[in-house]
Amino acid sequence: MTAGLFIPCYIDQFYPQVGIATLELLEKLGVTVAFPENQTCCGQPMANSGFEQLTDKTSALFVKNFAAYDYIVCPSGSCTLHIKEHLHDPGHEAAAGGIRGKVYELVEFLTDVLKVDALQARFPHKVCLHQSCHGQRGLHLSQMSELAAAPFSKPERLLDMVEGVTLVKPDRADECCGFGGTFCVSEEAVSVKMGKDRIRDYAQHGTEYITASDMSCLMHLEGILRREHSPVKVIHIAEILNGV
Q: What pLDDT shows up at residue 231?
């Protein structure tokens, strides 16, 4: 199979190591990966702010860049969910519909498509998993705690395959960190308080690293950690799964 690698703009600009880890991990697992070099923002920030009508050109470019691949893989739940639910291109609607059905966040691609059952990775640290809202509630990467249903977690299943990882459990496993895209700008004080609450929960359990499948949430938490001079670090799940 050939997968088109969809890298969100904030990862491209601020966390390129996450894109590299995603590429290396997929190649280790036998996937042929292509990277369309003229890809741009998927349009999620405009849509989240109520201006989805301004995403026409970014959507058309996305279709042009990715329509030919067997799958599209992205190390971000929020960007993936935006494409799954909102990608349209009036000039190429059939192609857009095809993309909506074959775009995957990295964790769900590993578990649902590749059906990975073993990884050659090592990360000897205490890790707390942050369940991002888009990944959990939109992509169903893990069970929501308010539902009376059997628990599951695709990210935890993968982390359990990594040698040396000690997965520590927070008290409130699926509480929002407060990032919320443009919410952290329009409601800064609320956003920061929510982030501080999550960090306090994670830190009290002795975690060394907070991981997630959304680097946007981790970016928000990292800013608070730095301002508080905390020794706790953030790391994208792709970096752990690719670790040696």
A: 96
